Structure formats: C-alpha cells, structure tokens
From TrEMBL:
<dbReference type="InterPro" id="IPR036567">
    <property type="entry name" value="RHF-like"/>
</dbReference>
<protein>
    <submittedName>
        <fullName>Ribosome-associated translation inhibitor RaiA</fullName>
    </submittedName>
</protein>
<keyword id="KW-0175">Coiled coil</keyword>
<dbReference type="InterPro" id="IPR003489">
    <property type="entry name" value="RHF/RaiA"/>
</dbReference>
<dbReference type="Pfam" id="PF02482">
    <property type="entry name" value="Ribosomal_S30AE"/>
</dbReference>
<feature type="coiled-coil region">
    <location>
        <begin position="75"/>
        <end position="109"/>
    </location>
</feature>
Length: 111
C-alpha cells in the first residue's frame, strides 16, 4: 500500500515517517484491497500538551475511510487512528460478506 505523509507547518523526521509507514502497512493484514493512504500531521496551537493531530485517510474500492486522533505525541495519535481504521476495515469486510451471502441466497432461491 502506498502511504503519503504530509506534515503541515513543520517537517517530520524520517523516524516518524518510517513509524507511520510501518503501522499503516499492518492494515493490509485486515483488508488486502487498500488502494492508497494519506496521513496528515498537524500541530495545534493550544495550551494543552495534547496538541499533536494525526489524520489518516484510506482509499478502498468504492469507499473512503477516515480517522483523526489528537494526543501528546504523533506516535500515540497514529496508533489510535490506525486502531480506529482497523475496526472500520473489519466492519467493511463484514458488510461485504453479508452482501455476498445474501446475494448467493437470492441466486440459489431463484434457481
């Protein structure tokens, strides 16, 4: 899966980009039809320590999944966003299986 990482208003170091790529590649285990992914890293100007935002958008056939998390570190925010996307991918796969099963039932009933 091809992942593009964009750091907005700062430059992300290669360790962070490698970490994000490694975590995002694990999503292929749950759904092998992911086309591309886009990661946006942002620093929010707030007094709170949790000012780092990670937004991840995945393109899959016929759909687009999105997760956004805000934490103290980009790594933590990315971990939470990836976990959210994993759950979304599992729901999407279940929905596809349900449709395929009901379609097979309709075809079998018509025969």
């Amino acid at each position: 899966m091809k992942i593009t990482v964009q750091a907005i208003h700062f430059s992300a170091d290669s360790k962070l980009v490698d970490f994000i790529q490694k975590k995002a590649n694990k999503l292929d285990q749950f759904f092998d039809q992911i086309i591309t992914g886009e990661v946006y890293l942002k620093l929010e100007k707030v007094e709170d320590e949790a000012n780092k935002i990670s937004e991840i958008k995945l393109m899959i056939p016929g759909n687009q999944l999105f997760a956004k998390e805000q934490c103290k570190t980009f790594e933590e925010a990315t971990d939470l966003a990836i976990e959210s996307l994993r759950k979304q991918l599992e729901k999407h796969k279940q929905k596809i299986r349900t449709k395929e099963t009901s379609l097979k039932e309709v075809i079998n009933n018509d025969l």
